[in-house]
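Work Package 3 (structural annotation) set out to generate three-dimensional models for the target panel prioritized at the project kickoff. During this period the team completed the workflow that converts sequence records into discrete structure tokens, so that structures can be stored uniformly alongside our sequence database. As a representative example, we reproduce one entry of 228 residues exactly as it appears in the project archive.
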Amino acid sequence: MPSLLATSTAVLLTATATSIYLLHTSLKSRVHHESHRSSGTRLPPATTAAIMTLPPAALTTSYRIMHDSATQRIPRSQLSNIPLPDQFTLLVRRNMCAFARFPQAWILWLTSPAAQRQTFTQSHIQALDFNEGDVVCAVYPVLRRSENAVEMGIRSPRLPSVEGRLVIRWEEKGDDVVFCSEAAMWTGVDENAVMPLEVPFVRFMHEMASWWLLDSGVRYLVGLGRSG
């Protein structure tokens, strides 16, 4: 007969898995998601056209590349009267502060040099305007900043042959504002490297984090509009 501990553990794991699945399903209904990967052919350039720091070579058949994006559309009338570029800075600060508390960030903190650990702190992130050269959570250096986009590199000493970009941006479309979170990773076709987004569990966790941050970040901005 199973012990009480084993039974309780099984029930807890089942409940946790069910909760995660339901959250994933709920987020998927509110966020538009697209994922593309090259497989011996070039990735359609239109899928990554908004990433200004993406090396052109990454889109050739010499590289394997994966691109993942999540977008959410919101009527401009639901947002505050704060200029959109300023709202965008608040959104990026809020989302990166939230990410710094995720399990993925804990792992990054543990494997980061002591001098880089302050880049995980709320005070550090809240003080940033995300200008070129700023670093967030040790592995995300800002490579490009415009009024409607922040493009960060993804660097990992454990995977030197894998490069990447993390992009947060917005654009106006008619009476709506579209917010987007993108991730791209690439490696040479001759490299014996597995990109994190090629690992099913890691990809699932990325989706959960990306979708939740986008959805809750937009709700945060809507809340600013209501309180204003």
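Confidence is low (pLDDT under 50) at residues 4-13.
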